[in-house]
Amino acid sequence: MHDTLLELWGLFASAFISSTIAPGGSEAVLAYMVAKGLYANQTLLVVATVGNTLGALTTWGLGLLAAKKFPVATLLSPKKQQALAIIERRGVWVLFFSWLPVIGDVLCFAGGWLKLPFITACIIILLGKFTRYAMIVWLFT
């Protein structure tokens, strides 16, 4: 496989993993690749945003599966119970902040648990991820 594709797949994988329950550093990878200047910034922005959004939707799906298996919210950890309460109070727009470290994963999980409208959740999560990565691209250009 061509080196370019490997590097872009690496950015995608880093962004995907960073948006699941596993820790990652996709912002640093994106900043490095922007500073290196070998790719169009728009390409890097799309690859990172799509990877990170798909990772968040994976976490959302895990929340949906967990709600089916364990329908009683009291079985959740205090962090997840807190996220449920925030989303129940504030609504689906809270998912815009899914890009935040640690809490973002919990928000996505809670969104799935609460069975928020999938298409709306996708769009709002994508907007949050895009905004964060656009700022990184802008800062390192």
Short description:
The protein has 141 residues and is mainly α. The chain has helices at 3-18, 26-36, 41-69, 78-90, 103-113, 118-140.
SSE map:
Blueprint: H1 3-18, H2 26-36, H3 41-69, H4 78-90, H5 103-113, H6 118-140
The biggest sheet, with number of strands, parallel, antiparallel or mixed sense and barrel status, is:
none
Number of helices: 6
Percent range for helical residues? Answer: over 70%
Could you tell me how far the N terminus lies from the C terminus, measured between alpha carbons in angstroms? 27 Å
Overall form? elongated
Spans of at least 5 consecutive residues whose pLDDT stays below 50 are: none
Give the strand tally. 0
Average pLDDT, all residues: 89
3D structure, described in words:
It is built from six helices and no strands. With 141 residues, it is mostly helical. It is elongated. Helices cover 73% and strands 0% of the residues. Helix 3 (41-69) crosses helix 5 (103-113). The chain has one domain.
